[in-house]
Design brief:
four-stranded antiparallel beta sheet, 12 strands, tt1808, chain A, 4 helices, six-stranded mixed beta sheet, alpha+beta
Length: 170
């Protein structure tokens, strides 16, 4: 019988670089599925879409940003939007928008845990994008999870409408 891995202190996690970066959940590291081309390309295109609109939105786009959602839990959205003045190296306030881009190895129940953490932290809007099936979902505390059947990702505040076709890889 093998012993359970020793818990990693939060301070150690916060001062250690992982490639790729990992989520920190109650003293354990959780790997994130990244590195596949469609995932990477979608993340790049979405980041570029936000970067082109930063001044207009008065917000800043970040990729793979550590967000401390609970005292012993740090999650890393693929992309998020924060207020322009945000300076925390590890976010301590909920992002305005949180985006999860699925990889072929992702399972919805695994993503749901990440989404639940973000919602409990106070994130008002979450987008889930599957570049492999070209499906997307919008998650809000009020509306739950709704598929973007018209192919448009929406956010109420800031008011955003993003046609999925603009960021999905060819």
């Amino acid at each position: 019988m093998s012993a359970a891995p020793a818990a990693i202190p939060l301070e150690e996690y916060l001062t250690t670089d992982y490639e790729p970066d990992c989520d920190y959940v109650d003293g354990s590291l959780e790997e994130r599925n990244v590195g596949k081309q469609k995932h990477s390309r979608t993340q790049f295109r979405l980041g570029a879409w936000f970067a082109a609109r930063e001044k207009e939105l008065g917000m800043r786009g970040l990729t793979e940003q550590r967000v401390q959602v609970q005292p012993r839990r740090v999650r890393i959205p693929d992309v998020c939007l924060v207020a322009t003045g945000t300076k925390d190296e590890v976010l301590q306030e909920p992002p305005i928008l949180w985006v999860e881009i699925l990889s072929p190895d992702d399972h919805f129940n695994r993503i749901q845990k990440r989404v639940n953490d973000a919602l409990q932290f106070g994130v008002p809007t979450i987008w889930i994008i599957d570049p492999y099936s070209t499906d997307a979902w919008i998650v809000t505390p009020q509306g739950g999870t709704q598929q973007a059947t018209d192919g448009i990702l929406r956010c109420a505040n800031p008011p955003l409408e993003l046609p999925l076709a603009e960021i999905l890889p060819d």
